[in-house]
Amino acid sequence: MWWMLLLFMLAHAEDGGSTGGAGVVATASDYTLGAGDLLYLEVFGEPEMSRELRIAEDGTVSVPYVGALQMSGLTVDRAEAQIVAALGNSVLVSPQVVLHVRSYGRSVDVSGRVRTVGQYPITRPGMTVTQVLVAAGGTLDVSAPYARLSRGGQQYIIDLEAILAGNRETDMPVEPGDTIQVPETPTVQVMGSVVDAGLVPYRPGLRLTDALAAAKGLTQTANRRVILLTRDGKTIRVNYVRILKHLEEDPELRPYDKIEVTESAV
User: Fold this and answer.
1) Among 63, 120, 154, 249, which residue carries the largest CB count within 10 Å?
2) pLDDT over 80 at 244, yes or no
3) Number of helices and strands in the chain (H, E)
4) What is the pLDDT of residues 99-154, one digit of tens each?
5) What's the pLDDT score for residue 31?
6) Angle at CA 189, nearest 5°, toward 185 and 191?
7) In degrees to the nearest 10, what's the CA dihedral of 237, 239, 243, 248?
8) What strands, in cross-sheet order, belong to the sheet with 38-43?
C-alpha cells in the first residue's frame, strides 16, 4: 500500500514527530509551546496553586506567586523546569510540578479518509501537510492521489503521488487554522463479462481501456462489439474492437461512470 510507504519515507526523512487526534496530546518532549496554548499547571501538595494557564499573545503565562513567565518557544520539559526554578526562588522548597497541554493554539484540523480524524498540533516550524498526515496515521484509500489544504478561503492541492515519487514541491508547510482533507477517491464501476468485476479508482485521464485492463480484461464470452457506458443516467454503446484498431475513440471516463461488458450471443 502506497500510504504505508509514504509513512515510512516521511517518518525517516526528518528527526522528530508529533502525535494528535481527538483528545490526544502531543509528546511532551517534542512539542514547542506557543501563543494560544491552554496548559494545566499541577503543583504537587499545593492544590490552590494548580490551575489552567493560557499562553498570551506575547508568549507569557501568569504563574501564581511568581508573575509572568515566558513560555513561547519552550518545550514542555523546559517550561516545567522554568516554573520549578521560579517557584523555588519565591515561595516553595523543592517544588514538584507537572505541566499538561490541554489544547493547542496552533493546530490543524484533519478530516476525510485518514485513519484518525482530529486536531493536530503544529509541533515545530515548517511542519508540512504530509507530516501532519503521518501524525494522523496515513490515508485510508490506498489510491488517494491528493490532499486538499484549505487556508483563508483558498484551497491548495497536495499531490501525494508526486511526493511519494520523490517530488516534494507541493508539500506545503502548515499554518495555524489550516484544514487538511483527504477526499474519498472516486471510482468507476466495471461489471459484466470481465475477469475481475468491481470498482476501479478514478484518476484524471482514465480511459475505458484502462478500466477494462484494471478489471483484468474481458472474458472469452464477452461481446467485444457491445460495451455499455452509462453516465448521468444515459447509456451509449462502445465498440471495443474498433477502439483497439484505432477506428473509434477510446472514451475518457468520469467519476462514477459505469461500464458493462455484455455477453456474446454466440
Assistant:
1) 120
2) yes
3) 6, 15
4) 998 888 888 999 998 889 998 988 777 899 999 998 888 887 766 678 999 999 99
5) 77
6) 155
7) -60
8) 51-54, 38-43, 97-103
**Size of the chain in residues:** 266
| Residues 5/164, Cβ–Cβ less than 8 Å | yes
- In whole angstroms, what is the distance from residue 197 CA to residue 217 CA? 10
Q: Which residues of 24-35 are buried (b: 16+ CB within 10 A; e: fewer)?
A: ebbbeebbbbbb
β-sheet bridge partners, residue 64: none
Rounded to a whole number, what is the distance in angstroms from the first to the last CA of the chain? 41
The CA-based angle 208-212-214, given to 5 degrees, is 115
pTM: 0.57
**What does the block give as the cell for 79?**
517550561
For residues 255 and 113, what is the distance between their CA atoms, to the nearest angstrom?
17
Q: d(Cα 106, Cα 139) in Å, to the nearest integer?
A: 23
Instruction: Write the pLDDT tens digit of every residue in 160-213.
Output: 888 888 888 889 999 989 999 998 878 899 999 999 999 998 888 899 999 999
Please list, in sequence order, all residues whose beta carbon lies within 8 angstroms of the beta carbon of residue 247, skipping any fewer than 6 positions away.
Answer: none
